[in-house]
Amino acid sequence: xxxxxxxxxxxxxxxxxxxxxxxxxxxxxxxxxxxxxxxxCGRSWYRNSSPAVGAVVVEDxxxxxxxxxREPEKGRVDxxxxxxxxxxxxxxxxxxEVREELxxxxxxxxxxxxxxxxxxxxxxxxxxxxxFRARIVxxxxxxxxxxxxxxxxxxxxxxTTDFAWEHDRKMVREALEEV
Length: 179
Ligand SMILES: [Zn+2]
Prior knowledge:
The chain has helices at residues 90-102, 166-177; strands spanning 36-37, 44-45, 50-59, 62-68, 77-78, 81-83, 105-108, 118-120, 125-138, 147-153. It is of the alpha+beta class. The chain folds into 2 domains: 16-47; 50-177, Nucleoside Triphosphate Pyrophosphohydrolase (Alpha-Beta Complex), CATH 3.90.79.10. Strands 3, 4, 5, 6, 7, 8, 9 and 10 form an 8-stranded mixed β-sheet that branches. The longest helix has 13 residues, at 90-102. The model has no long low-confidence stretch (mean pLDDT 92). It binds zinc ion. It comes from uncultured Rubrobacteraceae bacterium. Residues 48-177 form the Nudix hydrolase domain.
């Protein structure tokens, strides 16, 4: 599917901003650090990865994964989670996402899981994934519209499951190894 973002002037995920996002002033070449300053308002602009959070809910040695109800990657497996909102703490973000997608309250267990940065979408935008091992403290998983269903994976099923994204597989594997 081609949308407006794919037409016209190419704009790669690591290309510097050409115009100030605040006031539209044409920007010069970026400094070696990657930042570029607006000659009009003085603000500095950087291209960064977008932070995204994912939860691996573990219960009785099994990890909860979700089956995607929508494109992209409809029917394949991923983890509950999503992109952080502006200014949102990662822990608040994952608690919110899991509540929205599964209708349960979680509590985080253990240290964050940090797989490599990856790309997402037709433009290959960079995403910084942050994984959290978690357990359900209230409610039964009741998938909402974005989720077709849930599955509980044992560690022996992780390699053969049809994950939409490899970083989710890595997070599940790592979370189950901690058990
Ligand atoms: Zn400006």
